Input
Amino acid sequence: MSLVFPHTFVPWFRSVAPYIHAYRGETFVVGMPGELVAAGKLNAFVQDLSILHAMGIKIVLVHGFRPQVNEQLAAKGQTPQYSHGMRVTDAIALDCAQEAAGQLRFEIEAAFSQGLPNTPMANATVRVVSGNFLTARPVGIVDGKDFQHSGLVRRVDAAAIQRAIDSGAVVLLSPFGFSPTGEAFNLSMEDVATNAAIALQADKLLFVCEVAGVREDPKDPESPVDTELALADAVRLLAQNKKPAEAMQTVDVDFYLQYCVKACQAGVERSHIVPFAVDGALLQEVYTHDGIGTMVVDEKLESLREADADDIGGIIALIEPLERDGTLVKRDRTEIERDIDLYTVIEHDGVIFGCAALYPYVEARTAEMAALTVSPDVQGQGDGDRILKRIEQRAKSQGLSSIFVLTTRTMHWFIKRGFRTVDPEWLPEERKRKYNWDRRSQVLVKKLS
Output
């Protein structure tokens, strides 16, 4: 361990630093279904939440209690009733919901109060605040079905919640609301979390739930999870999978996806579906490049674009390791600043993960692609090909007929993508004068159609 640990921990910790900086002071609303507690995941989940809190993230936690209420109903010889994806709450179910909510609040607050040595909660001081932050209204009668004491969120007291999270507390919301006359209504966790996120204009809404996320092939349950879904695609997917009201389920991915869409359409920047079955899923979703679940965004966070002055620091940080090991020729920093408009970058959530520069030699109708770099954290995902394609497009738009690269170690990558090796004498005269004959770089050229 003494040999391996520093070589894994240090690079990992450095890789999450951009996200620590980016999310400090932001507001996350986290929805936790009762199934998470029933699966025995509460303590580990609360430990992960306390880590987010320690990193400066403001947290509103909304808990559900579906299985706990069903357990209480079964103990009383009652059968749960659902319609249109919602619980029908009669007087007995309302009593069961109140009992389940009280028990869960007790367990959650107890979990946040742990401080055992050698655990993630050691030295943590997390104050939990709950209260009557929600005003509710009845669902009423829908398609002839009386939902009785089931309700929907009418209003969220965002100002009071904001004061609490600004003071450093975690706000805990139970899925209960009260009408102006004092009548209690059973709400759904998803409705509460979504409306709280909208009212607070939270930076993230995260459902840590029993589904893995949206599959790349919805018909294949074994296909990979689509880690980033544009809002327009999510809307289209819901329309394609629309079910009749009587067939709506509360545990499939579309159920959570509809709330993610609602939140994003109302101004929440990102909404997530994260599987609680994976240990540390919340940390992986927040602090890694691709996450582990599905993130819905109004537009793709990852953008391929021309660089500007704000990207200089990110480009330097990206190419420095390759300059040190000799893969890239070291570039003067003033040169990068001077030529920043020649660079193309891939940016994800404010972090530069790939870059390349295009230096044209107009008289020879060619250009050099230099400093092609992709972060080791995301290699193998096609970002290098995307940058190459954009560089080719930039060269074509300038009326150039070819591009070339100089490399000592990655010639096979370029050859697979249509480049061919040529003698250094092929280089344009201006570039030939700067060629380092001691380095003996291979020159590879690609014709542009």
